[in-house]
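ok here's Transport permease protein:
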Amino acid sequence: MSTAPATPRASAWADTAILTGRGLLLMARSPATVTMTAAFPVILLLLLSVSFAEIVMPGGSYADYVNYSVPLFAAMGITFATLSTANAVHADRIAGFDDRLRTLPLSPVAPLAGRIIADTARNLATVAIVTGVGMALGFRFENGLLGIVAYFVVPLLYGFGLAWLMVAVALHAASAESANAALNALLLVLSFLSTGFVRLADLPGWAQPIASANPISHVVDAMRAFAHGGSAGDHLLAVAAWAVGLTAVFGTLAVRRYARRG
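and the structure:
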């Protein structure tokens, strides 16, 4: 009596590793993707630092404001780069790549998590490029090696959580254009209503509670503390809470949506 061969079972970890490798390979074949992602925050760093330096720090040097603002532009680079993650997920859906994946015994988490993890490498490159340009303008690390490591880890943690929000929106959106329009507006508000450009006390009274709760504020303040010294504990906990919350809520919504489409 013959028996039917057992159906292979999906392994979330193995499948995610394979699709992460695919994402990294695509990125290596298109280095312009990393370059263009970093170009936006670098241009902002060069232009806005000149505009805001004397206003935010009257009497201070240009290098003082660069030390203050570089973490913001690194965080903004990651923030807007997550739009590319959303667009790539949407493109895979439209191009039929997802349909081919559905013919395999594949975990529904893997295509999304693999894309986000691979894009974390791009985010690391973005932070490194923005910081490197900032160092040419006067940015300096003053808190030792562990401070430097933590400076890079904090925005990556934030970017991982935010990417799940972007992916969830991309999977529910009718078109890439509608998703981008809604998300761009949200990201601009988050960027400017934060402590990135100016100190909390210099913001209007109505904006201060928003800036205090804004995850970008906690990201940039933690990065400043790790780079130059100071207390980062509360900001680090806030960043971790945002990352875990976004991943848990929007990761669940995204995976359910992806599986339901199957």
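+1. The chain has ten helices and no strands.
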